[in-house]
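Data card: per-record layout.
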Amino acid sequence: MEDYSWSDPPSRFAFPIAAAGLPLIFGAAFATLILALLGMSVPALIGLVATFGICGFFRDPDRVIPTVPDAVVSPADGRVIAAALTDGGPFFEGECRKISIFMSVLNVHVNRAPVEGRVVRVRYRPGQFVAADRRDASGRNEHNALFLQTDNGRSLCVVQVAGLIARRIICRVQAGDRLLRGQRFGMICFGSRLDLYLPREIRLQVAVGDRVSAGSSILGTFESLPSGS
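The structure for this 229-residue chain is written out next.
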C-alpha cells in the first residue's frame, strides 16, 4: 500500500478556491446581487449560474501526494494527449520523453510540481492562442517554462501552455525556489495544457488517453542511478 503526504497545508475551507479566481467570483456575485435588487430575475439567474460556474473553475482541492521513491507525479489534471520520445528543443537538452496533458475548462487548473527539487530557471514567452490540444500548440502558443533539478541532479522541464481561451498564465515561483513534489506553483486560466519533458530513463506508467490528477497520479518513476553517481 502506498504512503501519502501533504505538500501544502490542507485548506481550512470545505471548498477551497484559488486566490486568482476571487476577484472574478466577487465581481460576478456583486453583479448578480444588483440585478436581483433591480428585479431583473432572468439576468440575475444567469448571473447566479455564472458565479457558480466561476467558482467551479477556480476550485483548488487539497491533494495527498504519493511518497513512492523517484516518482514523477502529474503537474496537471486532464487527459494525456502525448507520451513519446522526442527532441527536447529549447526545453531539454537532447532526446527526452515528453508527456502532454490537456486541461479542458471542466478540469482543475491549478498546477503542481512533478518532483521535489530546485527551480533552476523560469522562462516566459508570448505567443499565439491556438487550441491547446493541437500538436503545434507547444511551439506557437504563449507559454511559461519551469526548469527544475532534483536533489540527485536530474533535470526536467514543465511548460505551461496557454490555450484557445486562456489569456493568463500564473507562475508563483522563481529561480532558486525549492518545491516539494505535488506543491502548487501556479495555474492557467480557462483551458490549456501542460508539457512535461523528462529524461529518457524514466519508466512511464501512463499512456495517451489516460486521465490524470495533479499531484496524486504517478506518471512514471526514474530508473535508479548507478552507484557513485
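Known properties of this structure: The mean pLDDT is 88. Helices lie at 22-37, 41-57, 137-140.

See the next section for split statistics.
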